[in-house]
Design goal:
The chain is about 45% helix and about 15% strand. With about 325 residues, the protein is of the alpha/beta class. The strands form two sheets. Strands 8-7-9-6-5-10 form a six-stranded mixed sheet, sandwiched between helices. A five-stranded parallel sheet has the order 3-2-1-4-11, with helices on both faces. Helix 1 packs across helix 13 and helix 2 crosses helix 13. The model has no long low-confidence stretch (mean pLDDT about 95).
Length: about 325
């Protein structure tokens, strides 16, 4: 599978619009140019200084033709949504004027732009750090109904001729939650399955709840949250024929059919997993980086999930091409 072509084709069909709060960053401007030129998405750049963006683009030979550049002005927003935001901030001791001042900042303005359904996704994080992006998203957007925990996933793309993985898989959560408990693991799994089905609508989702143990091969209290999570996740997806969940599983049980047949012979997931839920951030972060550095996988992410509307948190080391691809993925989450 040419995963980039697959993602871009799906995104193009979504016919969406993206707002970039970090409009002065050259990588963002290059990604905006690529998205516009390839007709992947419409792009909005909010700013307090339109001339400055044009100067930066001219100096870097970036074509802004077809890109919408708007001056930050909160009067374009629904008054009720602004009042809701002011009230929510007042409950945290923030004055009305300070709340309004936040909406004059590019990040909060962009979130409110998305909240007002003037675009389909907000893509940021190359300048703002994770805490800042997530704080703005929570304050303005909130979480999706039924999900309490914001998390993330990495789309792990295997190199050609990889001996085990032939298609992309998902790893979660590898960037946000240090030690999720059973209900947190449930939210992470549900969010990841939802995004998997948007990226690969015709594929079976096989979710492995990872551990150092397979089906009780070890007896430890640290496994309890995983076994409890498996029960509640299975109940959530009861009746969904295109989603299988199982665990607790060691990684080799999840991906090697011969091992899966020995250790979990009755499992539909063993040896066939394509979604991997790690028990904590230590294992998740270590796992994706081992796959990336030793296994040659391309790790695309972290991609934030669990918010009511699509918001990204890019790595501050992202290239223009990374921003381009993540933007395309974010468009798919509103379909």
């Amino acid at each position: 599978m040419d995963i980039e072509k697959h993602i871009l084709n799906l995104a193009k069909n979504a016919n969406g619009k993206i707002i970039f709060p970090e409009s002065f960053d050259i990588r963002v401007l290059k990604a905006a140019q690529m998205l516009t030129k390839d007709a992947i998405a419409s792009v909005v750049l909010p700013t307090k200084n339109i001339d400055k963006i044009k100067e930066i683009a001219l100096a870097s030979n970036i074509d802004l033709n077809g890109i919408e550049i708007i001056e930050i002005d909160r009067s374009i927003f629904d008054k009720n949504k602004i009042e809701e935001f002011i009230y929510a901030r007042s409950q945290k001791g923030i004055s009305k004027q300070d709340a309004l001042d936040l909406l004059d900042e590019p990040l909060y303005f962009s979130m409110m732009y998305l909240k007002n359904k003037k675009c389909n996704a907000c893509v940021g994080g190359v300048v703002y750090n994770t805490a800042t992006v997530l704080r703005a998203a929570i304050h303005v957007i909130g979480t999706i109904e039924g999900i309490k925990l914001i998390s993330s996933y990495f789309l792990m793309i295997p190199p050609k001729y990889h001996p085990v993985a032939k298609d992309p898989v998902m790893f979660a959560d590898c960037a946000v939650n240090p030690d999720p408990q059973s209900l947190g693991l449930k939210d992470i799994a549900i969010s990841t399955v939802m995004n998997f089905k948007k990226l690969f609508p015709n594929k079976q989702a096989n979710v492995a709840m990872l551990s150092f143990s397979t089906k009780g091969s070890s007896n430890s209290s640290v496994l309890l949250k995983i076994t409890e999570a498996v029960k509640v996740i299975k109940e959530h997806f009861k009746g969904c024929n295109d989603v299988n969940i199982d665990g607790e599983f060691q990684f080799d049980t999840s991906v090697v059919p011969s091992v899966g047949k020995i250790k979990a012979p009755d499992s539909l997931v063993a040896g066939n997993a394509n979604i991997f839920i790690f028990p904590d951030l230590n294992s998740g972060n270590i796992g994706y980086k081992i796959a990336e550095r030793y296994g040659g996988f391309q790790a695309l992410g972290p991609i934030i999930q669990g918010l009511a509307l699509p918001v990204s948190d890019l790595s501050r080391g992202s290239s223009a091409h990374d921003i381009y691809l993540i933007s395309a993925i974010m468009l798919l989450t509103h379909v």
